[in-house]
Write a structure and sequence with these properties.
Chain lengths: ~170, ~170
């Protein structure tokens, strides 16, 4: 089985795993990484970290999940990486992703922000550095935008999108 | 304040769809698309004669439709919308059930969903049910739904995870 250098995940995927496996989240994640990911790390964008930890903390909800995610961050099983928007190629891909998503969103077009496509932009940050990635996104909209962009930039061999719920 | 009668929605759906097996057939079609009676019989482990009886009744009610493909009769979910105006014990609720958001309503007595309703209120939940149709179609993301309703992305992601579990047969 082909192994990818890193795994990039979005909020939906990680919350799905957490709510399903609760206290066993870490061991489940480790198993997935061991089988599929060379450096055994999940990379998330700052937006995803905000949605998994900072936002629920501010609202006093999901303490158990927040604690688990915080532990995984401390143990560096999950790492936050900034997206380098100063890189013109990344900035261009971010704009393309935003445009695709806005087109798909129709009446919600005005709601699409740069942050909504940050997992996609993060994926391309790795791919452009010749680092392969396994992408775990559950949002159908983001999945389709990512597929289109990977095809357009001829990078389908370096990235794999997880298709099924685990 | 949560409308208590809302917790009875799964029961209401069972009545609308005339019992558990018919509801399972609808859920299976939602997940798999077009199916033959034999497919349904194998997947749900229900005798073929019973499947035909259920399919006939569901088709007569306009909830599913059939067509012939390569000489085989296949069944698929119909394009129905149920507008429910429910009055009980002085509480009024109006909501719309479609094939795409039906599983959202089937989850109302599940832990994440009932916790969401008690914490955020019925109005936000019904808005979520409406937006879930667009989520299934790939028009909105979890973050966008959270923005529209005014809740956290984690709550929306947890709801969706549970709703998808309900859809698993």
């Amino acid at each position: 089985m082909q192994k990818y250098d890193y795994m990039i995940a979005d909020t939906s995927y990680l919350v799905h795993l957490d709510r399903k496996y609760k206290e066993n989240l870490k061991s489940k994640l480790k198993k997935i990484l061991k089988l599929n990911v060379k450096y055994r790390k999940v990379i998330i964008s700052p937006v995803v970290k905000f949605e998994l930890i900072d936002q629920p903390l501010r609202q006093n909800i999901y303490f158990d999940s927040v604690e688990r995610f915080q532990r995984l961050l401390n143990e560096k099983l999950i790492e936050v990486r900034e997206v380098d928007y100063d890189n013109p190629r990344i900035s261009k891909i971010s704009d393309e992703a935003k445009r695709y998503l806005a087109k798909k969103s129709g009446k919600y077009e005005h709601l699409v922000e740069r942050a909504d496509v940050e997992t996609i932009t993060l994926t391309f940050s790795f791919l452009l550095e010749r680092t392969s990635v396994l992408v775990a996104v559950k949002d159908k909209a983001l999945k389709e935008v990512l597929k289109n962009l990977l095809k357009q930039h001829k990078l389908t061999a370096e990235a794999k999108i997880i298709e099924q719920n685990i | 304040m949560m409308a208590k009668i809302f917790l009875r929605v799964p029961t209401l759906l069972e009545v609308i769809f005339k019992g558990g097996s018919k509801l399972k057939i609808i859920l299976l079609m939602l997940k798999r698309g077009k199916l033959t009676a034999m497919d349904i019989s194998k997947m749900l482990k229900i005798p073929i004669a019973t499947v035909y009886k259920h399919l006939r009744e569901l088709e007569d009610a306009g909830l599913i439709k059939s067509e012939s493909i390569n000489g085989k009769k296949v069944f698929a979910i119909g394009d129905f919308t149920l507008k429910v105006e429910w009055r009980s014990n002085g509480e009024d609720i109006t909501f719309t059930i479609s094939p795409k958001n039906m599983t959202v309503f089937l989850a109302v007595d599940k832990p994440e969903t009932s916790y969401f309703i008690s914490r955020r209120g019925l109005e936000k939940f019904l808005k979520f049910a409406e937006l879930y149709e667009d989520y299934v179609d790939g028009k909105v993301t979890v973050s966008m739904i959270a923005k529209i309703i005014g809740v956290t992305a984690m709550e929306v992601a947890a709801l969706i995870s549970e709703v998808e579990e309900v859809a698993e047969i």
